[in-house]
Amino acid sequence: MKAIVIGGGIGGICAAIALKRFGIETAVYEAVKQIKPVGAAISIWPNGVKCLNWLGMKAPLRALGGPMHYMAYHDYLHGQIMTRFSISPLVESVGERPYPVARAELQAMLLDTYGRDAVQFGKRVTHIEESDSGVTAWFDDGTEARGDLLIAADGTHSVIRQHVLGYQTERRYAGYVNWNGLVEIDPSIAPADQWTTFVGEGKRVSLMPVSGNRFYFFFDVPLPKGLPEDRTTLRADLQRYFAGWAAPVQKLIASINPETTNRIEIHDIEPFMQLVKGRVALLGDAGHSTTPDIGQGGCAAMEDAIVLATALQTNSLGIEDALLRYQEKRAWRVKDLVLKARKRCDVTHGKEMAITEQWYQELKQETGERILSGMCETILGGPLE
Hints:
Its EC number is 1.14.13.113. One of its GO terms (molecular function) is urate oxidase activity. The chain has twelve helices and 18 strands. Helix 1 links the parallel strand 1 (about 1-5) and strand 2 (about 25-30). The strands form four sheets. Strands 5-4-13-14-15-12-16 form a seven-stranded mixed sheet, with helices on both faces. A six-stranded mixed sheet has the order 7-2-1-11-18-17. The longest helix is centred in the last third of the chain and has 30 residues, at about 320-350. The model has no long low-confidence stretch (mean pLDDT about 95). By secondary structure, it is an alpha/beta fold.
């Protein structure tokens, strides 16, 4: 059996590693000539960590992950602590801890595990065709590839999604812009072992520790789509949007490097239940593009990879049947994650400001149990629980 994997990002490489583990031949094709991960870092929650453990990356992941032991929310105006609590109860409940990691380092770890030389770069798929015996993919350089099945891990702008669904999907603007990057840890901004978030006015500023004495930071601001902002105005934009916010926020804005800070308009796609057609399967953002508000986009792709490979390995009624079993196990799970993230997005970013203000008040009474319980529920829905 040979699987063509379209996309060399997190989901595609995890799928290739999982298939390889089961002795299934793989060929990975990536559109760009050099992968430049979107976003500076990613929070890998315990369900994703367990997937990477299963794929053989337990030790290298720990070397990349930051020491995140606490969570805290601060008032935007004066920086006062609204709530602070240990995440140890979460770790004890689910049997693993979260690891925030730099995206470029995660991508490098995945490529090194699979075999960097085995990925064919500069291969942008134009269309695919299925037959009773396999799938053929054509690329814009005039070449083609054939396999017994095809895994479409070609991201939120997937070319192959329409082949599976039979219609064109539209990306939905979530209503806010996210700036993110990496900066050296400064204890006067936030503790080095804590996920720290400042909230107010429907905006947020967040910091997570990653390896190398660095914070992963991000700023969220509800804004109209398509504003003419870029790196040349980035610091001034943030200073304007966060004018009057607490001193640590001002210090963070002053310390960032605009040349390495990303500005992203956040989108998702209305969830759908069809993830496969014949011998073609959607995986990762191609199958469930979500906002980052519950930190499950990358983790969900890792889950997909393991469920898909296991279905192909453990079911013997043919490829089409195995892919349908993958769809059965994943469709409701990923739909739930997309909708949970959308709900969290709307509360966090002031879609209805009265609800957001109520959340701010609830944070002042929060002991950690309610927040960690919600996280636990999401994590325990993964395939390795």
